[in-house]
Amino acid sequence: MRTHTKQPKIPVTELEHSAFCKPGDELPAKTLLEEKAVNVQWQDIPIEYLHCSVEELDARIGRAKQELGDSVTILGHHYQREEVIKYTDFQGDSFLLSQKAARLPNADYIIFCGVHFMAETACILCESHQKVILPNITAGCSMADMAPMDDVDDAWEDLQDVLADHGGIVPVTYMNSIASIKALCGRTGGAVCTSSNAVAVMDWALNQSRRVLFLPDQHLGRNTGLELGLSTDDMVVWNPFKHLGGNTEEQLRGAKLILWQGHCAVHKRFSVKQIEMARERYPDITVLVHPECTMETVQEADLVGSTEFIRKTINEAPQGSKWAVGTEISLVNRLALENPNKVVFCLDPVVCPCSTMYRIHPAYLLWVLEGLLNGKVINQVTVPDDIRQDAQIALERMLALS
Ligand code: 13P
Ligand code: SF4
Asked: Closest ligand 2 atom to the C-alpha of 13?
């Protein structure tokens, strides 16, 4: 057996996740120099960009984008800040953006305003002549960081030892994971999923094998399993810091769903108490949450879905309707702005953006755009060929199931 009990290691990104949290409801843009006072890892950038005012950044991004024309396509996840999202050619959830990245034959450069695993996925799905750029290379994802490859390899080996003669296991990884986990899924008959197709992918996986290893978000895995009719008794959690994930061989053999012990720091904040408070304030409110929230929160909510589902549902809702939303604040604030005749607010009274998404400050976008104008590709994200090929298999299985 390869897994053993060890000291839990908390990813730096998880420790930094509340860095930008504050009471109130606004996130005014500041110069990068001022924002750098917040104690998180920031990528170094030439000094001239640190001092640019928000207005100057805005004007220069507009000019650079225009000059670069069709050679550049900018993709933006819904959690990006307003000052960045306004320059994106396409916005979406991680599924839509991965589909988009696979269908941009004219762009030489794809600038991904999102986080590292999204840029990696774009790099796997786009054509080989295209280059994918992440404006700030420190924009990771604390959930993805909870499943490092060494731990996953050890877990997979031990699961083979325990389960190979007992109906086997198939891995499903959430998009929010490193490329080498996607490659493991591709090599071993598994698939990738996103929050918008997790039910279809897990359903497929449960038909391939007696059980599924779901990485790295235990909450999305649990919520999806419940939606498919499994009970919590059918599930065990795999703690990567313990021998056999903290389970006995019998528990692993009895499980239909083995949930990697990862979570999203942003979505873990939403609670049943917050939902009760929202309903007290507005008895006719509809509560809409992302499936990365805990099981208790998801079960208490009225609706659950991906960021694109949340966006569409609220934008298409009747005037006067009221929405309490359990997802990242930049998206909620945007929906509130776009729907002035509806009540839209975040369940969490504390403004707490995803601290890694938030690291795509407009100064970084300008830096990579002006780099391209000067013939320099800054922050290209690449995936080694062998990993890329296997990961593509797992991603294509997902695309075929969606
Ligand atoms: P979506 O795929 O719903 O956009 O979610 C991505 C994500 O990182 C949510 O935390
Ligand atoms: Fe990762 Fe959570 Fe941020 Fe999404 S919101 S990118 S899951 S840390």
From this structure: 8
Question: Quick check: 197 and 401 in contact, CB under 8 A?
Answer: yes
Q: Alpha-carbon distance 234 to 264, whole Å?
A: 23
**Does the beta carbon of 286 lie inside 6 Å of ligand 1?**
no
What pLDDT, on a 0 to 100 scale, did the predictor assign at position 23?
80
Q: Measured from the CB, is residue 176 less than 6 Å from ligand 1?
A: yes
The two tokens of residue 180 are 């080498």
Give the Cα-Cα-Cα angle 227, 230, 231 (nearest 5 degrees): 110
Give the model's pLDDT for residue 25: 65
pLDDT at residue 285, as a whole number: 98
Expressed in angstroms and rounded, the spacing between residue 247 Cα and the centre of ligand 2 is 27
Among 143, 193, 215, 331, name the best residue to mutate to test ligand 2's pocket (greatest count of ligand atoms within 8 A of Cβ): 143
Per-run averaged pLDDT (10 residues), the chain, 402 residues:
93 93 80 92 96 97 98 98 97 96 93 98 96 98 98 98 96 98 98 98 97 98 98 98 98 98 98 98 98 98 98 98 98 97 96 95 98 98 98 97 92
Residue 345 dihedral angles phi and psi, to the nearest 5° = -145, 165
**What atom in ligand 2 is closest to the CA of residue 292?**
7
Q: Give the Cα separation of 44 and 52 in Å (integer).
A: 15
Cβ of 73 less than 6 Å from ligand 1: no
pLDDT computed for residue 26 by the predictor: 73
